[in-house]
Each structure stands twice: as structure tokens, then as C-alpha cells.
Known about the structure:
about 45% helix, alpha/beta, globular, 8 helices, homodimer, UDP-N-acetylmuramoyl-L-alanine:D-glutamate ligase, 6 strands
Amino acid sequence: MEFCPRVSGKQNRIRNIFLANVDPDLQSSLLDCMRSPRLVGLDSMNYWIHNKRKSLLKILKRVNIFVANDREARDLTGEHNLIKAAKFLRAGGPEMILIKKGEHGVLFYSDKFIFCLPAYPTDKVVDPTGAGDTFAGGFMGYLSTRRKLDEKAIKKAITYGTVAASYNVEAFGMEKTAELSLEDLENRLFKFKKIVLF
Amino acid sequence: MEFCPRVSGKQNRIRNIFLANVDPDLQSSLLDCMRSPRLVGLDSMNYWIHNKRKSLLKILKRVNIFVANDREARDLTGEHNLIKAAKFLRAGGPEMILIKKGEHGVLFYSDKFIFCLPAYPTDKVVDPTGAGDTFAGGFMGYLSTRRKLDEKAIKKAITYGTVAASYNVEAFGMEKTAELSLEDLENRLFKFKKIVLF
């Protein structure tokens, strides 16, 4: 492994950690550096699912939230039905499974509850690159401000991730996301509620 | 046209009409028989979209609700983005556009509001045949009991269609759907609310 980032003395005390999509062995060595994580999220991709399956399944036992897209969840589990895939993944370690379905929203699965949320409907799709990471950022960012990781907090975190991702797809790369304020998120969340609540 | 159903004296006074998926010319002649429809829904399929496009576009001007699945909406409009497809269809006549996305739920579009609802998540998918028709039945059935077709009524109708369809996919053909009671629908709707509301 050539790329081997170091974790500084301050960073190793970070309590809410998101292991973004890199080699699962690298994710594992990064996690080893952390002193007392409260919440560990992990994202991966098809390349690792096929080429580092064992390492990936091993680190999944150490994470709280596994974030995957629908294709990755199906590839890793061999289950087409996403509820079955989520149950399979849950049995492999993470208490929480978050399956991203792009324009179709997300499916959250845990032993305590299931939550389904559509994507924010937009006809201004310019570039979907990074939408999944933006979602994860909004989701983990919100949870890192919460003391209790209960149903209410998790549902709310998913709505923040969803509106953050909706801004991301409306421009190239980070053009819109980099400028986002909390007010932007709140404004869109307000509109989103009218679109999905009944 | 060999199949030419007749509408009896009683039937032609029915006020809430759903023109299920048959030849659009036949749908049109059936609609001609109706005296004073209040609400007209229409479903179609790719065969008619490709082979009777003109007839289909013509009858769309006479319906209130066009119900299509995502592939049909894309095929008919040439728009991949479903919001754009819905706007295109809206411009062709129907005030309300209801795009069914199978396991991913539905998108409703009108000038007044947009509504997105996931499907009821189930891992007991046995046979999806007829799910779209069951959805339409639950949706139209609920609206036919309402005086006002406002946002609240339409959203509720979509939730009834959704839970009705979820029972349909859990057994072959009409096995489960034929036995459904209103209580069954209400029970699942109660569970569904916990899964989609926040």
C-alpha cells in the first residue's frame, strides 16, 4: 500500500468518523489510529467488493453505519431485493445500513426501524458526481451534532444528507456544494417536507 | 377494432373513470359513452406509445390523470429526467401526472404541487404482475369517495394505492389482493407512516 495517510494527535480524538471509499485495508489502518470513536461510518465501491471482499467484510464488523449504493449492496450480498440485502449486511456487523438509490432516494435499515426517503426531485441535474459523498457528509455532519443517535436524529440526518446531495447534482463538482450554508439546507428541507410528507 | 365493449345505461353515469391499458382508440370510444365524468384516469403501455402515439396524445387531452410507469413516461416524452417528463406530459393535457417507479415508489406532478412517495418496503416479493393496476385501483377508489380532489385527498389516495400494491406483489396474481379488506389497508398504512414520515 503506497498511499498511507497519517493521523495527527488531534485528529485521533475525533469521535465521529466517516471512512470514505478507499482500500478497506487502508480504512482499517486508519480506524486503528482512532482512540475512542463513537460513530463509525464506512463507504466502499464495487472495485473493493470484487477485489478485497475479505478485507471489506472484516472491517464491516467494526463499523456502525455501512453506506452503499443499491448496486454495491446487491453485488456484495448477492440479493436483488434491497431489504434482503440490508438484512444480510446487518448480519455482517453494522447496526445501521444506508442504501443510496440515486434519483430514487435512500433506504435505511436497522433492527429498530426502517426508513425510506425519496430524493429531492429536481430537473436541474448537471453532474451527479459526488452526490453520494455529499449525502454522507450531510448525514454524518448532522449526527455528529447530536448526543443521542435515536430514530428521530437518524431520520433527520438522512433528510439533511438528501437535501445536501440535491444541491450537489445541480452543478459541476463542488461548485454549489462548496458555497452551501446551513440556511440553504434548511430552506430546501422546508420545501422537501411539503413534497414528501402527508 | 374487434374488441368493442358496450357501456350500459347505468354504467354511463359513473363519474370516476379509470381507462385501463387498452388501445387508446378504444379508450376514446369508451370515454365518448360516459355522460358526465368528474374524474378520468388513464393508463397506457409501451406498445401503444410506439404504435398508436397520435391516438394516445389525442386522448390525453381529455383525461385528468395520466398514470404511467417510469419507462413509459420516458419513452413517450423522450425525457430521461422524470420531472421534465412529467412537465412535458402535463403540457399535453392531463392536470395530474402520476409516474409509477415500481420498487422505488411514485412521483406525482401537478401545477399545484409535487409529491414523492417510496414504495412500501417488502422482502416478500413473489409476483409484481398487476402491481400498477392495483395501485391505480387503490388510488382511484379512494378519490371516488372524496368530494374535493385537493392536495390532501390526492396524497392520501397515493398512499392507499401504494399499500394496496404492496399486498399485490406478495402473492401470485390476485391471491392476496382479492381478499383485501379496508382494515388490511389501514393496518399497513399505519406501519408505512412510521417508515416514511419524519
